Amino acid sequence: NKNIYILAIESSCDDTSAAVLCNKKALSNIVATQKIHEEYGGVVPELASRAHQQNIVPVVHQALAKANIDKNQLSAIAFTRGPGLMGSLLVGTSFAKSLSLGLNIPLIEVNHMQAHILSHFIEDDTHKTPKFPFLAMTISGGHTQVVLVENYFKMEVIGESLDDAVGEAYDKSAKILGLPYPGGPLIDKYAQLGNPKAFPFPKPKVEGLNFSFSGLKTSILYFIQKETAKNPNFIAENLNDICASIQYTIINILMDKLKKAVKQTGIKQIAIGGGVSANSGIRKALEEAEIKHGWTAYIPKFEFCTDNAAMIGIVGYLKYMETEFSDQSVTAKARYIL
Ligand code: KG4
Ligand code: ZN
Q1: Is 307 annotated as a binding residue?
Q2: Which domain of life is it from (predicted)?
Q3: Contact 120/129 with Cβ under 8 angstroms?
Q4: 164 has binding-site annotation
Q5: pLDDT in tens, the chain (338 residues)
Q6: Known binder of ligand: residue 313?
Q7: 111 and 157 part of one domain
Q8: What is the residue range of 291's domain?
Q9: How many domains does the chain have?
Q10: pTM to 2 decimal places
């Protein structure tokens, strides 16, 4: 049995990443995070695509070097076709197309959302692999979805955010509190020191398995404006309690919908992915649900939770085994439904 070597490229948002996989194992997974967006409080698309152009060649070189693989050993190139920012996607897509042409090896397009879910199948001794069918919840700065996963290639979105993504809710709340971008990890850090019931925020009423986070952001803004008018030091004096209350509300929103999805499908295997999977509140809530409701929760290694090319590589490998290749006419797709 011949080893398959996949070079994978991810450039959908603000991280430039390249990885080399040998079959299902990641030999390297290099991520260049773009610091430039910090001072703007969010990702600036034009700056992101320029940074991808600067980063892509060195990142690919590093991924090959770290894996100790020569480009002539590669079996195929996998890349993120979408969804994401058009200018960012174009950099990875054109690079992958050219390299596949130059090396005369197959080109494999990958849906970024499918990759977040299939990241659970990257071979890793410390991580158990979910069994089909399972429910996947992707939670990040760009996505909030609940997906029914029947097999590698058959997935159905059964719930998603109608407005902001959950990571955005974290980051925008953090901005209101004067915390730097991305504020999610900071809210999580302070939340662990505060009282989650100090300040009750309303939960949105959304039908079915869909989510909404924009109302929460507005109620936090009004609350902070009202309290700081009375006491200019309100935020500083209550930061831990405010963060704990925000976190409590967000985690409740996520867990309510997950419970509903489990009830609706009868599936108790829950896999999460995306940057917010690092959150201590969601991890704790899932651990509790394992005991209380008999769920099995799968949480990937942090390196595979946030945007990375190894997750693109695992989909590349699985598609390679099915000889599902793209041709040179393939183009980037900003809106790319799962
Ligand atoms: O997956 P990711 O790296 O990029 C995409 O947005 O696709 O996710 C980044 C998001 C940011 O919104 C960040 O604030 C959030 O994940 N995040 C967290 C935590 N760590 C990262 N949010 C809450 N708690 C955390 N510990
Ligand atoms: Zn992502």
Answers
A1: yes
A2: Bacteria
A3: yes
A4: no
A5: 799 999 999 999 889 999 999 999 999 999 998 888 887 877 888 898 998 999 999 999 999 999 999 999 999 999 999 999 999 999 999 999 999 999 999 999 999 999 999 999 999 888 789 999 999 999 999 899 999 999 999 999 999 999 999 999 999 999 999 999 899 999 999 999 999 999 999 999 999 999 999 999 999 999 999 999 999 999 999 999 999 999 999 999 999 999 999 999 999 999 999 999 999 999 999 999 999 999 999 998 889 999 999 999 999 999 999 999 999 999 999 999 88
A6: no
A7: no
A8: 128-299
A9: 2
A10: 0.94
Q: Are residues 83 and 159 both part of a single domain?
A: no
Local structure of 234: helix, strand or coil: helix
Same domain for 232 and 169: yes
Substitution site in 12, 140, 213 for ligand 1 pocket (most atoms within 8 Å of beta carbon)? 140
- Asked if the peptide bond before residue 83 counts as cis, ω within 30 degrees of 0, the response is yes
User: Are 107 and 284 contacting, i.e. CB atoms less than 8 angstroms apart?
Assistant: no
DSSP 132: S
Pair 91, 135 in one domain: no
The residue whose C-alpha atom lies closest to atom 13 belonging to ligand 1 is 184
Calculate Rg over the CA atoms of the chain: 20
**Is residue 7 classed exposed, middle or buried when 0-12, 13-18 and 19+ CB atoms within 10 A define those classes?**
buried
Q: Does residue 102 lie within any of the structural domains?
A: yes
Q: How far apart are CA 304 and CA 120, in angstroms?
A: 8
Question: How far is Cα of residue 155 from the mean position of the Cα atoms in its chain?
Answer: 17
What number is the ipTM of this complex? 0.98
Q: Tell me the CA distances in angstroms from 181 to 20, 164, 245, 284, one per residue in order.
A: 30, 16, 20, 24
Distance 185 CA to ligand 1 centre (A): 7
Gap between the Cα atoms of 176 and 197, Å rounded: 20
Cβ proximity of 278 and 286 under 8 Å: no
Side-chain-side CA neighbours of 108 within 13 Å: the count stands at: 28
CATH number, position 107? 3.30.420.40
Count the Cβ atoms, other than its own, within 10 Å of residue 167. 23
